[in-house]
Amino acid sequence: MRTVSQLSTLLSEYIKPGGTPTFISRLNQVLDRLYQMGDWKELQAEFEADVSAGYIVLPPDYESILGARVQDMPVPVHSTSYEYQDRGPGYLERPVGGVYGLIDKGWVSLLSDLPEDGLDNLTFTLVRGAFQSGDNITVLYTTTEHGEVLSSNNLTSGTTLTITPQSNITDIGAISFSSLPARVVASSEDVDGNDIIYAILPPGDGAARYHRYEVPQVPESTEEEWVLHVLCKRAFHPLAGNDDLVYLDNIHALKHGLLAVLAEDESDLDRAQVHWELAKKTLSEGLHEARGGAVGYPQVHVWGRGISALAGYY
Question: In this structure, how many other beta carbons lie within 10 angstroms of the beta carbon of residue 97?
Fold first, then answer.
């Protein structure tokens, strides 16, 4: 894994000399495209989480789940439409068997569900440095007695921002931000004094957006610990500084990506397409090499489309 500075030393000759785009801006254009092309070995990461609440929301570092184990048992990962398929299982009432796997619930604005009685405050903490003029955090939330509230906060100094509503917050519709110098963590204490994290905001501009999955194997209101192990694909976040790490640092793929962007600037789309295809081929070869002797195999999903047509044969 290399830094932006190290890659600049190796690849800066592949951007237009004297051009206004910086190496970082060009590299961001290339990485954004390459991330979308596949689940490359450099973008795969594992972690585990307690899912006794019946769901998991991926931190902003991760885009999606590629594979999962619940209580050490492998389970499939299903799409958002799984419970709506005409030959599917329908609504799954917890708990269900492991064969049903995880269910993709799309994108949400919070990492954790709010408590039933809501929040009496929400604190945003900058993990490094201090806020400066131009930084902003805006929160759209709903309260128990005062309806929907839009709180826009321009920050000029300090390391924390605390939102204290007139009545408890029962829903947070959106969190947007601009010019943040580093990561910001939004949290609040629960009734037991535990700090619950509701959002992690990356540096720069954007909005809180996290991928949520339901884990229907977990019983309602369980006190048992349920552990989920997942293999995830990393999410792309624009690089900001020379010391930022670049996970997808395949030199040959990045070189072709930079040449593709240069060709697009010159309206030579045919040449650009050749370079993009070469970049993808290079990454595919790296993925194949990383697999070694591991070979994939077909899987039959119990509630897959067309399963009823096969039932008569057994």
Answer: 11
SS3 84: helix
Q: Please say whether the beta carbons of 139 and 122 come within 8 A.
A: yes
- What pLDDT shows up at residue 98? 77
**Residue 135, both tokens:** 């930084």
Question: If you search the block for the tokens 């990561």, which residue do you land on?
Answer: 183
Question: What is the structure's pLDDT at 312?
Answer: 47
Rounded (5°) CA angle 60-186-1: 30
CA distance 81 to 148: 30
Which of 103, 110, 154 lies closest to 132 in space, CA to CA? Answer: 154
Q: In percent, how much of the chain has pLDDT > 70?
A: 90
Residue 115 DSSP symbol: P
Is 123 a residue whose pLDDT tops 90? yes
- The radius of gyration of the chain's CA atoms, rounded to the nearest angstrom, is 23
DSSP symbol at 252: H
* pLDDT over 60 at 293, yes or no: no
Strands (E), the chain: 2-3, 44-50, 55-57, 62-70, 73-75, 77-78, 102-108, 122-126, 135-143, 147-155, 160-163, 169-180, 184-189, 195-201, 204-207, 210-214, 227-234, 245-246
Alpha helix ranges (H) inside the chain: 4-11, 23-37, 251-265, 269-291, 307-311
Residue listed under structure tokens 């619930």: 105
Strands 77-78 and 102-108: parallel
pLDDT in tens, 145-160: 999 999 999 999 999 9
